[in-house]
User: Which sequence fits this backbone?
């Protein structure tokens, strides 16, 4: 048996004759080297130290994946917390805007001066440093802004209550005349009564007017009495709060009943001359905690 080998040197062909002992020994050594090298490589690959190294690498990769997942979860949690804070701030801003619009309307302020539907106009030159806030600084700034907005909201709420109470006071405070047309025919104080001729205390102000003319409420309130009363004829009493009550007497016809809520300027009766009277007029009284007081200052306060 011959084995032919093509040499890379000038293309010469060499041969091994397996019948010759030297050639057989050379071929046997070559095969033994190949088999031994393969076994050594397999041994190295199957070495337990290599398995440990691979396991260690896999363990490190797994730990890094777990750490990356924790970082991702922490980042998501921070984003959720930041979004929640921003949502809270937006809610505060919306309430402040609503309060601002309400106060602007209640105080009759020009809306062009305080427009709560647009962002406030701001500006200024650009600074040299363009460094943004660090995460901790940003969180602190958001917390501080949230506290400031809460304080502003509390202040505006108190201001709203003050304005509301002032407007309510103006609505329920008696002011003005109980008739639309007419004149004062008798003032509050001591006078000679036109019927009895005796000096008596006149506890109201009389407004002469046309028979059947409108009698109107001088403030917002609730009707507490509507009917006949000795000396007053057909009379209406209206409670306005804060201890104030107004009384309208000598009417020809009543247009309200007990329990009715009336607004300022609402017609409650018609001018008449019922009861102890010499002609069509309205006897107007103002009572504070059940005691008659001079109505003149309330009449004049509307001017």
Assistant:
């Amino acid at each position: 048996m011959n084995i032919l080998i093509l040499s890379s040197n000038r293309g010469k062909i060499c041969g091994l004759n397996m019948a010759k002992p030297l050639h057989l020994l050379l071929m046997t050594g070559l095969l033994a080297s190949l088999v031994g090298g393969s076994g050594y490589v397999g041994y190295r690959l199957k070495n337990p130290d290599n398995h440990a190294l691979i396991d260690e690498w896999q363990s490190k990769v797994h730990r890094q994946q777990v750490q990356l997942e924790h970082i991702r979860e922490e980042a998501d949690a921070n984003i959720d917390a930041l979004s929640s804070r921003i949502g809270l701030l937006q809610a505060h801003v919306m309430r402040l805007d609503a309060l601002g619009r309400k106060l602007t309307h209640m105080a009759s302020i020009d809306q062009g001066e305080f427009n709560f539907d647009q962002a406030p106009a701001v500006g200024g030159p650009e600074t040299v440093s363009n460094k943004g806030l660090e995460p901790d600084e940003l969180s602190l700034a958001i917390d501080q802004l949230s506290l400031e907005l809460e304080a502003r909201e509390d202040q505006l709420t108190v201001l709203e209550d003050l304005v509301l109470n002032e407007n309510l006071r103006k609505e329920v405070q008696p002011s003005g005349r109980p008739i639309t047309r007419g004149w004062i025919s008798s003032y509050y104080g001591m006078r000679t009564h036109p019927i009895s001729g005796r000096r008596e205390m006149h506890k109201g102000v009389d407004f002469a007017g046309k028979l059947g003319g409108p009698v109107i409420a001088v403030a917002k309130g609730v009707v507490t009495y509507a009917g006949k009363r000795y000396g007053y004829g057909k009379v209406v009493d209206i409670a306005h709060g804060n201890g104030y009550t107004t009384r309208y007497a000598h009417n020809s016809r009543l247009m309200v009943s007990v329990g009715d809520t009336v607004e300022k300027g609402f017609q409650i009766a018609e001018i008449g001359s019922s009861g102890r009277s010499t002609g069509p007029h309205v006897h107007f009284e103002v009572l504070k905690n059940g005691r008659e007081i001079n109505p003149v200052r309330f009449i004049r306060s509307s001017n």
Observations:
- The mean pLDDT is 75.
